[in-house]
Specification:
- The complex is a heterodimer of chains A (111) and B (118).
- Chain A is mainly β.
- In chain A, 0% of the residues lie in helices and 54% in strands.
- In chain A, strands 2, 4, 5, 9, 10 and 11 form a 6-stranded mixed sheet that branches.
- Chain A is globular.
- In chain A, 37% of the residues are buried.
- In chain B, strands 2, 4, 5, 6, 9, 10 and 11 form a 7-stranded mixed sheet that branches.
- Classes of the chains: A mainly beta (111), B mainly beta (118).
- Chains A and B meet through strand 5 and strand 10 of A and strand 4, strand 5 and strand 10 of B.
Chain lengths: 111, 118
């Protein structure tokens, strides 16, 4: 079945440093979404990417969808302690309703 | 934004009992709801897709007789864990998609239910 892997599993940075998580799908996706889950909380939608090679920005966050629509990345510039949490990508195949979540990257930011 | 209410948030039960978890879309109609399971520090694993007025579609390895799903209306889906055992202890999260949008749309998540089976 479809698998979505993320690296790294965990990253600990100092506040102000940059952070990137990478997402790779075993199959071509129709779209990819990113979610953030704070400790003890539920996933919260961040963004959706649909087009091949698409790049979207949200303040300090930059999201990219690969040309082959099988990989994606999330880059955070100048991390803040409020960025702490686990970031999940989630991919959807064409014609299927379900969303398959990646393995997640847990980010810890020290002040 | 759209709100999905999930209840209860936490439940502790004895082994062998059944537990029902409710998931409601409060300000939109959801023809499709998804039930996920999450173990500590792990990803969300899709258990089943719940479709209003029809049988749920279960993922491979998920026992449909153990995890009963009912989606009787456009705003309510329930997950019943029957004859719960300690290995069923987990965080269960529902999510819903607004029927007004196409399949390429974001999910709205409930706040989750932490189930502990003693």
């Amino acid at each position: 079945g479809q698998q979505v892997m993320q690296i790294p599993q965990y990253q600990h940075v100092q506040e102000g440093e940059d952070f990137t998580t990478y997402c790779n799908s075993s199959t071509t996706l129709s779209n990819i979404q990113w979610y953030k889950q704070r400790p003890g909380g539920h996933p919260v939608f961040l963004i959706q990417l649909v087009k091949s090679g698409e790049v979207k920005k949200q303040k300090r966050l930059t999201f990219q969808f690969g040309e082959a629509k099988k990989n994606s990345s999330l880059h955070i510039t100048a991390t803040q302690t409020t960025d702490v949490g686990t970031y999940f990508c989630a991919g959807q195949n064409t014609g299927f309703q379900k969303l398959v979540f990646g393995t997640g990257t847990r980010l810890l930011v020290s002040p | 934004g759209a709100v999905v209410s999930q209840h209860p948030s936490r439940v502790i039960c004895k082994s062998g009992t059944s537990v029902k978890i409710e998931c409601r879309s409060l300000d939109f109609q959801a023809t499709t709801m998804f039930w996920y399971r999450q173990f500590p520090k792990q990803s969300l694993m899709l258990m089943a897709t719940s479709n209003e007025g029809s049988k749920a579609t279960y993922e491979q390895g998920v026992e449909k007789d153990k995890f009963l799903i009912n989606h009787a209306s456009l705003t309510l889906s329930t997950l019943t864990v029957t004859s719960a055992h300690p290995e069923d202890s987990s965080f269960y999260i529902c999510s819903a998609r607004d029927r007004e949008f196409s399949t390429n749309e974001k999910l709205f998540f409930g706040s989750g239910t932490q189930l502990s089976v003693l």
